[in-house]
Every structure is written in structure tokens, then in C-alpha cells.
Write a structure and sequence with these properties.
With 265 residues, the chain is of the alpha/beta class. It is 17% helix and 28% strand.
Amino acid sequence: MARVLIRGCGDVGSAVAHVLLRSGHEIVIHDVALPATPRRGMAFADAIFDGASELAGVRARRVDDVTRLRDVATDEVLLTTAPLGDVLGAVAPDVLVDARMRKRAQPEPQRGLAPLTIGLGPNFVAGETTDLAIETQWGDDLGAVVERGPTKRLGGEPRAFEGHARDRFVYAPVAGIMRTQARIAQPVSAGEAVAAIGDELLLAPLGGILRGLVHDGVPVDAGAKVLEVDPRGDLAKVFGIGPRPRRIAEGVLGALRLRAGSGAP
């Protein structure tokens, strides 16, 4: 059993938390106070806004008092937005996983923040930025553990659903505060107004149900992915853990087992 601190409450970080908790580990998730997480039906992100949330039978609870993070259990995920330094001091994690999935950002070196550090996605270099890394691109290497060197460069297009790939998404045309009364899984028609950022209306690009929608009142950067429509209309594809996040999470679990089997600190 390890005490694991996960950075990022999006669908990937939440899948990692879910899989590791179900494997007997103690889990704390750290994120910013107002995360711009679109796929909230597939994440623990709403615990930040509502105090608690559930994902595939696992409960997450928001904790604001960092001293209470010392009492981590294996029956729920704890989620906090306290300063990272305070969280590290209170949790004293055995493992730190950077699951923020900042595809175009250069990750800061995190080795030494915990006995084992793991980075997910592009731009991580195993042995430099983190001890290990996990491949996150679709393909045969999805979920593979990288023990030395960089992960793959960012590339490729989103997977197509019924012929729709990147056109399923809406990106913020300007920076500002996301405003919406819509909800995850809500049916929408092509061209329907779903949200706004300032004077800019955000329209559904096609008909279907909302798979991704940044929470009302959250600041977003220009170009950020803020809305996603799934043309399949299947609620099971909107709630729960998706195939890609699950394979990435299983890769993290494999990394923990790899390090434990090696006897390395």
C-alpha cells in the first residue's frame, strides 16, 4: 500500500485515483480552486464545487483543512485545493503522479517531491522531470511505462465518434469566465447556445449530448477546450471511466508494481 498524491482532477487523474484506490492505496488529489475540467461526468472535479462527488462507485470528498489530509483512508478519495507545498507536507506521499495533462506546457522538475514521481503525457522525461512516465497517446503504447527518456511528442487527432473528431469540440474564443446553465449529458442541437464567455456565445457544433462542459463561473484561457458534444447519445459514454483514462491508470498501477518489484526506494 502506498500513499499517493495525484495532481489534477480531470478524467485521467480521476481514473488513476479510482484504480489505485480500488487496489488498496491511499489517495489524495490536488488541483486549483476552479479547475477548467470539461469531462466532469468522468471525473471527481465536481467535488471541488459541491463538496463531494462519485465516480463509478467511488466517492471523493473535498478537504480544506490540510491537517485532515494526514488521515487518508482507502474507502474514499480526498480532494484538496490547498497550496501544494502545504499538501505535500501534510500528506508526505510515497508517490506523486502529475496527471494534469497539460499537453503544451513544459512540466517543471518534480523528482524529489516524493520517493517516486510519475508524469503522464507529453514533455515528461523519465529520469529528469520525473522518475517514471506514462504514455498517454492512443496506440499500442498507451499506458506503457517509460523508465528512461522522453514520452512521445504531442500528435494525432481526437478519436472519431460517428465520423466526428475535432469538430465535436468547442474551444474558448477569448479568455474570460465561463457562464452556462447547461449540464453534463444534456441533449443539444447543432447551433444551440450552450454557454458564453463575455459577449461570445458558445454554440453546440452538432447534435448529441454534452460529454464535456466546463463548470459555470470558471475562468478559462483563450483556446482552452470548454465544450464537447457526443453524437452517440449514450449516457454510458459520458459518465464513468473511459477506455483511455483506464489504460493510463493501469499503466500507473503497473509503474508502482514495477518500482516495488525492483526494490528501489
